[in-house]
Each structure stands twice: as structure tokens, then as C-alpha cells.
Amino acid sequence: MLDWMAWTWQTATFFAALFATLTVMTVLAIRWPETERIGMLGLPTTRGDRLFLTLLGAAFIHLGWLALAGDAPLWGASIVSLLYGAAMFRWA
User: Fold this and answer.
1) How far is the C-alpha of 5 from the C-alpha of 61, rounded, in Å?
2) Measured at the alpha carbon of residue 35, what is the angle toward residues 83 and 59, in degrees to the nearest 5?
3) Per the CB 3.0–4.6 Å rule, which of 31, 39, 53, 87 could disulfide with 92?
4) Number of domains, the chain
């Protein structure tokens, strides 16, 4: 059934983490509803907005890492992305 895609443990881990993140965000939204806040971006954002911006930024960080760092290990981009995500959720 899923023979058309090469599922590896890395792919499964990525999708499991994404699903877990969306589940946690849903539980947070139900348990503690949030109003919009204005951060360093100067526009009102919610948790979901900040998550979207974090995921989008992480994708660009990884693409930039692949383009500029050459053969450097990709976990470096993941660390930079985690720091970027923490900053987005704290100050954006």
C-alpha cells in the first residue's frame, strides 16, 4: 500500500513529531485559549501563527544550511532551528 514512498525511520520520526506538535497545540488551545499578542514582528499573532512561522523558518534554515554549509552535519541546522523556534515563541 505504501510502496510508492521510501519510508525510513527519519521520515517516520519527522511525521510523528509533527503530529505530536499539532496534538499538543490543539490541547493547549482547548485547555488555555489564547488571545492575540503583538511581539517583535509588530503584528498580532497566536500560538498557531508562531508555530507556522517557526516551521516555515526551520525549513528555510535547513535549506540555507544545505546550500552554505556543504558537508557539515545537518543536526547543526536543527539546533539553529530550535533556537529560532524558542525565540519566535518567546518574542514574536
Assistant:
1) 25
2) 30
3) 39
4) 1
